[in-house]
Amino acid sequence: MHWKSDLKKTRLALAGMVFFILFSAGTNGAAQEAPEDLTATIHADQTGKPIPPFMYGMFTELLHNMFEHGIWAEMLSDRKFFYPVDNSEELVPRNTRRHQNRWRPVGPEKNVVMDTDQAYVGKHSPQIILDGTSPIGIKQAGMWLRTGKEYTGRIILYGDPETKVEVSLVWGPGSSERETVVIDHLTGNYMKYPFHFTAGGDTNDGTLEITGTGKGSFHIGAVSLMPADNLHGFRPDLINILKEMNSGIYRLVGGNFVSNYEWRHGIGDPDRRPPRYDYAWNTVESNDVGTDELITMCELIGVEPYLVVNSGFGDAYCAAQWVEYVNGPRESPNGMLRAANGHPEPYGVKYWGIGNEMYGVWQMGHMSAGQYSIKHNFFAEAMLEKDPTIEIIGCGATILEASTVARHDRKKSPSGLPYDFLSPDDWSGTLLSGSYQNIDYLAEHAYPPFNMYFDSEKQEWVQAERTMQEIIRITPGRIKGAVECMKEYEKRIPGLKDKHITLWLDEWISGGDLGTAACLHELFRNTNYISMAGYTGFNGLYAMNDVSSVISSTGQLYRLYRNHLGTVPLKVTGNSPVQPLQGTPLVDIPTTPPGSSTSPLDVFAALNEDQSKLTISVVNPMQTSQQLNIRIEGTNVGNQARVWTLIPPTREQRRNQLENPVKVQESETRFRSPVTVEPMSITLYELEVR
Asked: According to the model, what pLDDT value does residue 410 have?
């Protein structure tokens, strides 16, 4: 078990993200200055492969608060009692979720017993032992309630017939600041009782209280509480925001999480789905959001689901059974199970990934590339036998990804870095060599370190102080390097070029919003070799608390590009070449720098589908405005332009986006070259083609 390596990777990834967020506030050191006559030439007659909608895709994972206390509308934590109900200060095992309320006893702690013999779900259920005098039970505080808001829920109980149970929603200290539902007809079997409340006041510390009076005892099997306006269990405000993004595709269900995920625990009656400990992220997964819920979410948002099977601790049989559950005919064994769960028709999910980051020592079930190639084939063949129409995404790591994550390895490769192509250390090269016949697309991840680079002479990772201009190019460099690797694989692996497997960059991070825009530019420049990208993660598209939400600055960027940026890439040249980043080629940087030759600006241009409009997107990472001459060759354009400008928030503004949402500035103006590009900005110009 590689929990220490996992922890190290997690800390470094988080440190990297914190680092780029800090720098998105506007750090700018000794950056490359622009020439006085900085010019971008748009070659409208030199087009690239159209941008696929999946380039705007999103990564999701059942971790932290993406779903629980996120888009999933459940208001209670630990609603199926994975943890004992007591007054202890610490949770054992630990739980890393940032938003985790606790069940606490009402009355003496000794009167709440975790009964393992009469458990409703999981390992135990709380038994409340009554004393015949005062109310005894459990409660959970920390819920945000709003006046007039309706809430619905259910509770599963069994107990002595003489017991009276009261379920109360509490929004204040007074006796009138609560609403109570009385349940006084318990039986000797677990029964489900619905309830409904309307809050009579505002609070950010509301309580659900469950108490009993009388003699004997009662058991609580599970409890649920949601706002009554939920959409199939999801928050409607967040569903509406995500629907606006038109993201194309969502990767489900993770992430490191998937390598210890059992899909069968996430189907059927949600109250009967056992909560399980997630050893990847040291948290508890309720299994409330499972296969059917995830696909329903995709339908609500309007995106394709892309499911990833467990090839860590999982096996090929289990993966094939999942394919049958999702896509199998109604009369198949798992199709009948799906129908019994309320979905008689097959879902027809087309895209299936096999494994997540199996190249990493932190990944549960990690093995060598050579062995994993064999395992991949076992999985692919079993899954295709259940549905030959599905398309398989292999778990890849090109030379750059394998080299970058090598810093987590306990045992260093004797050959050092960079790795040799098709060597045992070249994960993607080895996987493609042995499995490309069973791969339609190859996954690649990009979590580069933003505060260090690899020194080839020292064979060490060295701390680096980066300018914002450099930071926004780090992930684009990884993107370009991955494409360089794929071209090399096509040269070296017989038959691969004819199949032309494209990359799915289904997890990536960037240097803040400016870096995200620069990454999208680099993705769009490489549509011949990249056909999908999944930004980490979809919850970055909004800012939220428990009762409200707004589109975040990142969401504004995605919506702007998706709605207004053209889809046919154009060649862009310039007179200010990009300087190489610090690092070692094919370890942490590509052999040629990413970006456009318009440094310090990054410029991308595209025509819309019917070629009636030309769009030009410019990223300025500098703290000063920049003059840019724009020359357009190969077509004629009008002299009026629509202009959209996004100024990413500072650190303080980012923390307060709910109160002061970031807006895209829109205007119409006469188009004249040179244009003035605002400091620290993303600007999109739209021109009519004559």
From this structure: 62
